[in-house]
Structure formats: C-alpha cells, structure tokens
Amino acid sequence: MGEQVTYSLPESVEANTAGNQLAYLAEDCFRPVLGATALDPAQRVALFAQMVRYNTLYMVARAGSGHLGSSFSSLDIVSWLYLQVLRPNDRYYSSKGHDSPGLYAVHTALAIQPFERIHQLRRLGGLPGHPDVGSPGAVTNTGSLGMGISKAKGFMLADDLAGRDGGRLFVLTGDGELQEGQIWESLIGAARLRNGRLTFIVDHNKVQSDTFVDKVSDLGDLAAKFAAFGCEVRRIDGHDLAAIRAAVETPAADGRPVAVIADTIKGRGVSFMEHTAMAPDQEYYRFHSGAPTPEDYRRAADELLADIRARCLEAGLPAPTPTPITIEPVRQPVDAERMIPAYTEAILNAARRDGRIVALDADLVLDTGLIPFKNEFGARFVECGIAEQDMVSQAGTLALAGMVPVVHSFSCFLTTRPTEQIYNNCTEGTKVVYVGSLSGVVPAGPGHSHQSVRDMTTMSGLPDLVIVEPLCADQVGPALRWALDEHKGSSFLRLTSIPYTRRPELQDCGPMVPGRGHVLRRGASATLVVTSPVLAVEALKAADALAGRGVELTVIGMPWLNRIDAAWFGEAMATGAPLLTVENHYVEGGFGMHLVTALAEAGRLPGRTVRRLGMTVVPASGRNDEVLRHHGLDAASLAEHVLSVL
Amino acid sequence: MGEQVTYSLPESVEANTAGNQLAYLAEDCFRPVLGATALDPAQRVALFAQMVRYNTLYMVARAGSGHLGSSFSSLDIVSWLYLQVLRPNDRYYSSKGHDSPGLYAVHTALAIQPFERIHQLRRLGGLPGHPDVGSPGAVTNTGSLGMGISKAKGFMLADDLAGRDGGRLFVLTGDGELQEGQIWESLIGAARLRNGRLTFIVDHNKVQSDTFVDKVSDLGDLAAKFAAFGCEVRRIDGHDLAAIRAAVETPAADGRPVAVIADTIKGRGVSFMEHTAMAPDQEYYRFHSGAPTPEDYRRAADELLADIRARCLEAGLPAPTPTPITIEPVRQPVDAERMIPAYTEAILNAARRDGRIVALDADLVLDTGLIPFKNEFGARFVECGIAEQDMVSQAGTLALAGMVPVVHSFSCFLTTRPTEQIYNNCTEGTKVVYVGSLSGVVPAGPGHSHQSVRDMTTMSGLPDLVIVEPLCADQVGPALRWALDEHKGSSFLRLTSIPYTRRPELQDCGPMVPGRGHVLRRGASATLVVTSPVLAVEALKAADALAGRGVELTVIGMPWLNRIDAAWFGEAMATGAPLLTVENHYVEGGFGMHLVTALAEAGRLPGRTVRRLGMTVVPASGRNDEVLRHHGLDAASLAEHVLSVL
Lengths: 646, 646
Prior knowledge:
The structure is a homodimer.
Chain A: H1 4-8, E1 21-24, H2 27-35, H3 41-63, H4 68-85, E2 91-94, H5 100-109, H6 148-162, E3 169-174, H7 181-190, E4 198-204, H8 213-217, H9 222-228, E5 232-237, H10 241-248, E6 258-263, H11 294-315, E7 323-326, E8 336-337, H12 340-353, E9 357-361, H13 371-377, E10 381-383, H14 388-400, E11 404-410, H15 411-414, H16 419-427, E12 433-437, H17 455-458, E13 466-468, H18 476-486, E14 491-494, E15 500-501, H19 504-507, E16 518-521, E17 526-530, H20 533-547, E18 553-557, H21 566-572, E19 579-586, H22 591-601, E20 610-615, H23 624-630, H24 635-645
Parallel strand pairs in A: 2-3, 3-4, 4-6, 5-6, 9-10, 9-11, 11-12, 12-14, 13-14, 17-18, 17-19, 19-20
Antiparallel strand pairs in A: 1-7, 8-15, 16-18
C-alpha cells in the first residue's frame, strides 16, 4: 500500500507526525487586523482567513490529526460570516463538523474560545475533534453527516414558539455530505419556510474523504436539485469575498431557504495542499484528515506566513511574528500492530476463493483497507458514497440474488444510520457481513460522533447475527473466514483502527471457537474477561502490574461478543474468584451483559463477585491514553478496579 | 375523538369488523378473463383489476386489517404489469409494501400463490401483512419505507456480476414514502445507471397514512425533483391503461431510470372509498388501513360486483358469481383496555401545564393519539411527515433551544431509522421524550417490519436514556409525568397499541418508583417478572391456571426496562425459587438481560434457576393469539415454561 499507509488511518495516529518544532500566531497578532475596520472588508477578511489557516495548520500538526483540507476550503466563508455578517442572535455551524479546526482557529482569534485552547485540539478538556455544545461557540453537536438542515429547522421552530428573534441561521455543509438522504429529507419540509432565516452553504470543494465527489458518487446537477427542492440557489466562487458577500448578505426576497453553492478548493491557501494541484494520475487526496509530515508542515507554514506578510504590507498593517513552540514528541505504541492491513489481506484471500464476494464501501476506502480489493476486483467493489442506508439495502438484495456482500464503514455510522435496513436484511434470512472499523472509544481524537461504543446495542436483536471482535491482527483472517464460510447468518466484524502494542499472549492464542475465549494468563485471584485488542493489552499490563503485588489474574480474551459458551467459561474462570468484564463499549447492552446473563442462566455464577467495566458516559475527546485513563479503562485503572473487589 | 377511535388503531383490531357474511371470487371466476386474450388489453386488464379489488376487499374484511386504499389505487398499474408486461426474468415489487392485499389478490388469481391463501391474510402460515420472501411471488421484504430503489440497485448489480439477464425491474413507491430520505439517497447513485432496467412508479394517490400528502409534508414539484435527480419523468393518469402502457412499455432511450408519476385515486374502484369523494371538511381519510364496517363492506362489494358484471357483459364474458362465506366472529379481548387514549389524556395534561412541550409526529397522528393535541395546541404540534431522521434532529435542537420535545411514531420506525440522530441528541445532554406506539410482537398482523421487538436494543447505550413501558393505561400518565418532570435525561415510552384485557391486579398497583416493579401476585413456587400489558395479562392468566395445579407464582410487573433496583427485587422475588423473565421483545439485548445482570452484580442470584422468555426468531405474522402461542408467549406456553423449570 506504500504511501497510503501513512494516511490510511488518519484518526489513529496517536500524536503529531509533524515534528516537534511548530509555530502559531498569538492572540496579539490578530489585534491589528481585527482593529483595521477601515480596511476594505474583503482585504481584511482575506488576511484574517490566512492567519487562521496558519493557526489551523499548527493545531492539526500538534494534535496529530484533524481535517486540514476542508478547514482551509471553508475559511474564507467562515471568516466572512464571523467578521462581517453574524449578529448576536444569529447562529453559524457546520453540519459536517470536521472542519472544526478552522472554526476553532476563528473562535480563538475572536476570543469566543479562550485563546490557549489552540494548544489543546483533540486533547482531554480541550477542543474536541468534532463540535460539542460543551465548547464555547459550538451551536450544536455535529460530526454525523446530514443533520444540519434538520437542526436549523428545530432552532427556528423553537425561536418561533418562544416568541423570540432568533436571527438568521447559516449552516455549512460538505458536498460529499449531500449524499446522505437526510439532507434531502430535511429539505422537503424546509422548502415550506418563508421566514428568510435559513441560508445553507455547500462547501463544494469537490473532494470527499477518499477522492473526488464525482468519482465517489456524482451529485449531478446540484443547482437543479436544490431548486427542485424549493431553495433559492446562489452559486459562487467560495474564495471570492465579494461573491460571498453577495450570496449571504440578504435572504431570498420571498423568504425561502437560500442554498449557496460555493465552489471552493480543498486545502485552499497552501499551494501543494490545494486539490487542484493533485497530479493527473493521483487518485487520493492527501490532506483530508491526518497531520502533515514535518516537511509538509514546514512548507505550508512558510508559504502561509509569506502570504500573510505580503497582505499585511499591502494593507499597511504590521506583519505578525509567529511564536515558535516545541511540542511533546510523537508517541506511538511500542511494537505496534495494526488490524486493518490484516483485514485487507483477509478479504483479498476470501475474494480470490469465492467469486460471490462483493465489497461495498461508504467513502472510506482508505480507512477500511479496501484499495487493494478495489484494484484487484474491479466491479466487485461497490463505492456507495456517504449513503449507508442505500448501501445496506443494496447489500440485502445482492445477498438475496446469490452474492455474498461485505459491507464496510466506520462502526459509528455502519451500525446506526442503517439499522432498520440491517434488520430488514436479517428478516430475509440471508448472509451479509458487516465490517466496522474505528470501533471503540479510541481513537478518542475525533470525539463522540466517531467513538463507536454503542454498536453492540444497535447490532443486537438481529436474529442469527453474530458479533465478532478479533483480539489481534492474526484473528482477523479466521474471523472473516468463519463469517463467510461457516456461519449461516449475518455477522458483524468489529475492528480496531488504531495501532496497539503487540503482546505475545495475543499472537498465538489458539483456534477461534464460537462462544469461547482464549485464556491469555492464569491466576487465582480474579478473572478479567476482556474484549478488543486495545483493552486486552491494558488488561495484560494490569495483570503484569498486579503480579508484582501478589495478585494473580486469569485474563480471558474474548472475540465473540454475543455468543457465550457458558460451560467453557465455567471451566476457564478462576474458581470462585471475582469476575470482571472489560469492554470497549457502553456496559449497557454490551458484552458484559451477555456474558453475565449467560453464566447466570447456566448456573455458573454462585457466590461470585461480578463487575462490568466499560463506558457509562458519553466518551470524552482527547489523546488515546488520557481518554482511556479518564474512563477508567487503562491498565492502572483496571488494576485499581481489581484491587477494589478483592 | 368520536368516529376516529374506530379507525385510529387500525392495526390493533384483532379480527374482522366487517361482519361474518362475506364473499369472494373463486379461482374459476378468473379463467374467462385470463383466457380472453383476444380482448382489448385495456378492457381485459380493467376487468381483471376490478375482480382482484373484489377479492382484496374480502381479504381485508376477513383479516380485520390491511390497506384497502392503496391496494385499490395501485391495482390498475399492478394488473397491467402482471398481465401485459412482466416476463420471467423481470421483477416487480412494492417498496411501501402495505398494498400487499391487492398484490396477493393478483398473485392468487394468477396461481403465483395457492388460491386458498386468500382466506389467510394476516394469519399464521398465511399471507403476512407486509411482503416476506418466504411467500411465493414476493421479491424482497418491504414495509419499512424508502428502501425500494436501493434494493433494485442491489438486484441489478447482482445480475451483472453473475453475468445473467435479470430483466427489467418495476418498483412501486408511495407518495408519502417519498418523504423518506433514503429515496433520494438511493436516486443519487441510480442516476448513473444507463442500463434501461429500472422503472419506478409512484402511486401518487395524494393521501398518506393520516391525510393528504400536501397537508402532511408537501412534496413540491415532484417531476422537477426526479428530473434533477437524473430520471426520465413520465407523468400519467394511473387509472388510464393506455397511459400506463405508454409509461412502462419501453425504457428510456438513454437507459436511465424512468420515474413514472402515476396520478391515482386512493380507494379507486369503490365510489365512497375514493379520496376524491371525501367531504370538503373531512380531514382524515377513512380507508388507509383497517377493515371496513359491515355496511361499508356490503356497499363496496355490491358496487364492485355490479361494475364487474357490466364489464363482463360488455366484453361478452360470463359474469362471475361470488362465493359466499361465513367467517369466524370478531374477537376482541374481554373487558378491553387501551393505552393510546390514556396517552392522549396524559400529553394534553402535560402540555396544559408546560408551554415548552412540543409534540412531533411522523404521519401517524391517528395512531399515536395526537389529534386532540394538534387541535388544542396548534403550533406546538409539528407534523414531520414520514421523515424520522429529520424529526429527531429537529427535536434535538428544539431541546437545545429550551423546548421539551416529545417525539412520536411507531416503535419499529422511531427507534431504528433515526438511531444515530437519537444518540447525537443524547450527546448534547438535553431532554427529549421519545414515544413509540405499536410496540411488541402484537399486533402481529402487519408482519415483522412493524412488529417492534428490538427497540430496547437500539434504545440502549444512550447515556441517561430511560426506557419505560407502562403496564396498564393507568400508568401512562405517571410515566409521562416522570419523564417530563422528574427525569433529567431523555426517555423512551414504549406503548402498546392493541386492546388488552383489563386485569384488576394491574389497575391500582401502586406508585411508580424507578427500578422497581409491582408485585401483582405472591407465590412461593417461582417468580415471573413480566413487562408490557399484553404479557402481564398472559402471565397472570398462567398464574391463575397454575394455581389450580398447586403451583403458586409470584408475578412482578415491571415498567422500567433498563433501570433495576436489585435490592428491591432481591426482597420481592420468591425466596430461592426459579426466576423467569417474560418480555415482549427479543431476549438478546432485552429486559431480561438487564435484570439478570443487575441481580448477578448485586449478588442476588445465588443458586437460583434463571430463564429468559421472549422473542428469539423473526416474528411471525398472524392473528395475535396464534402468534403469541407460536412464540411461546401466551398464558398456556408460559405455564408450560414454569412447569419445565420446577
């Protein structure tokens, strides 16, 4: 996969990859441009936008992940809105939400957020990877695509019912986001509005997560679509500030929603990040998410600074001097192992054996490891775009008509948006394999919209559907083979996207037998039954630590999340000792509930202390280590839990 | 509510309401018209369509429920397709699926289904309320709206990959169904097809579940929308057979999808059932679902028969003589109680107290009991159309902006289609009350798309969301009050729509305390913890029956499905005796799992036999009593279960 590996798991890079020497524009640097109200507005906003791009670059480089491309494409629009348009009652938010680094750079420059937060993107207690209402300036939680216009309707209705002047609403959407049905669903009702309050702006940068929108799922004639859905359409160059002004300054004369189609350039502002600079044979855009390399960071920062200085000179303003900063070194798990490459290998092998296998993807081909499949199997790869419901219903009839569909996305989307469609498929008694990557509370950088810790609940109550979460890369192949060749019904493979420490206990832990776990370590003090590679590593580290204190744990790794061989567990658990389950999921509806219930029904729990560990509150956004600690799921916390029940 | 009560719970009528003297056209009656191939096709199809309408009327009257209005509106189109167009490889199905009685009437007349099945609509082992692939002629499971075009894409893709001639695909959609985002989501990709295979036909009968489409959520310029989404649009009178012919005979010249907008009349064929015959001041259409009254049945049958005879005379064919049949009498629970009227009262009271309460509905105002709310509170009632994702996201921002949204639909839709939106709302820490009616395995007539037995799974893993299922009508008010006034987070009220027997034990069972149940009966032999009014009645009947055999049950009714006061249960359960949980839901992810886990963690299970009863397979469609029996949830089965563990 070559270079692709570098950015194929953008959310999983635990810390920055941009080197340790970065720089940002301090709060003071913004005073001159903010104070220069006599300046031509377009000139002032353009300069401000470049300055916040500089800080956006810093934030993403420091965080080690974040979305540069769409932050940059939207920043002329966002800067214009904040500096020239928004009044106190108005609301602005991004429906896609992943352009939040750019928005935070604006918010910090304008003191809507404390300025110091620019050092805390994707850190615990800092700025979450996607917007959260707990953060100043965030109007609503976004990050799950397609909800923005519906949300605007709710706000307007609330204002009307409360009899208050709610002002205007400006909603930014992506262009790939328009593939989500909810956008059109919400527009049907929006078309009836004649209140002049809603303007939504499509950041039409032509490139979605993987590649060009028209290659993923062409949107066709967007202007005709919005017009047919009752909007007044205004199409502009989204980097031409005069055009932005004209498009957003006034509502439609008849008050109906205004759809601004803003043609923008992804990565705008840094020449080599602009999608228009992609080589003709370059298929995938490199700056959608993930941190820049040290060289890319340096080049981009230099280029932006030169442009900022030139603009200051032209405007007669003092040129800002960036503040250099040395940041913490990159952290990666020691002896890291990754699951997605193993999945790539597994599905390639399966597809070579079985011509009925069809892989479906929802614009995450880079992250789900499907590029080699796409290259090798052509028509048997189906790119559905960001359209999970459509994808899953297609998979259903593919299966009815004799194929074996394997359906991919991030778990947070795959198991929620199309859950009714998944059930519909299950009622047909066919076999569909659902493969969700980015499962669990880590990576924690992207925030709760992407932290998939409720997929076991939404994938339960599906007759014959078995949930399998491999414990290590070596189990991915066997798990997929079982789902394809041995299991009659459907299944859900829950995969970890971040690298995790390779542990010898997990490397050769024996054959996978449905309902049974793997005894990774034996001890008489207590039994930990753990799911997911990340937490298996933490549990083993906890066991190592406790062994030094005379507490010996039995650690059972469990890849079968909703199938329990209670008799096997009865034998495998430490006799009479406390049982703790540890899962990368909410405890409500999670694996622990399945295990404890099965053991109780089998009469295998008498007199035993039982505790379930896992998520109980909305996941925090932050660095993986600090978030695991925050939720009591790191090795130290697990060890403390064990001691507390002994 | 007057007359509305008669049809406000159409799915809940357990048996026919059309009296016991019905008639149908036997298989033989169809031979002359099917054999009259020399007849003008339009004349022949029109006659056939009227004959299948006659049998559709019989089937729905006999079943006591089913969708007459849209069966009738679609039958000229469907008859034309089956008699004149479909070749062996072609596929026809209805995306909305609830017009299945009409389709079954066609299938039985054409021997695609055994003819005898016309006596078995919505009966166990007969014809399910919505299509199921287990039924001959059913191409795919439908009934959850909006999936039809996606499914067509999957079929076509499978044919292509298998290298077979899959023929043409004809998909019927509703017009209300077009409010679902998935329709538009699926069309984005469909527009790229140039294979000449897909024709979808909108049965544009102008009336959706409640009332006129343009009153519920106006679709605007449909032709412009389909054109903008890349379809060739053909608009026709859906009862003009020559026009139908012209619209479906040939694909588009360039092979792209054809959208036929067929203007039809809901209830077509019976003068007083046609929506065009509604009085100017009549707001709700009476024949969407549910059985006709005896008088309506008689008038409709007479009118259809007269028309059929006249057409036969004109065509020179023998006039058919209907076969009279005496059917089983109407069954209703003795001393029946209904929950929805109690809900109506409860939300009216709440809304009078608290001006922040806003009710949102998804085209089920009749079934969710909201007509009085709508009439009394005007702007605080929000009709969202069949657009659950849009509805839930609107509710989210209503809550953020200070309102208290109460969101309604059938549980099967409310808890699945917008589950990502519900989670998104929960991450904002606001309060939204979700109210799902039609919960549980009964009514069993509509089939698995409507039998909500996995809503606890999809509503789990939502921090602070509490699931409450009142045990009787008297608990609905307190449950809603708790959700609105006492609970800080969100909640899901799981309501039963069918009438159930009033039991004294359930009438005054004490205050509702979160996590605690109600001891309905005390006995030492075993403890049954039961949820839902329907199963509470069955459990009490089982206890009555067992008492006669010397087995004394403790029966605990439990309205809190995901909150357990384990200490209270420890005291309330019969000491040391077996524990059985009984739930109107899949056992996987259901209440039993929550209870058993909580008791195990609290150390309250030592030595106790534990069994969980509930659904384990896809629910069967049928009459309520036979389906409860089929799934082992009727009183007799529960008693047998108890005996088996003693």
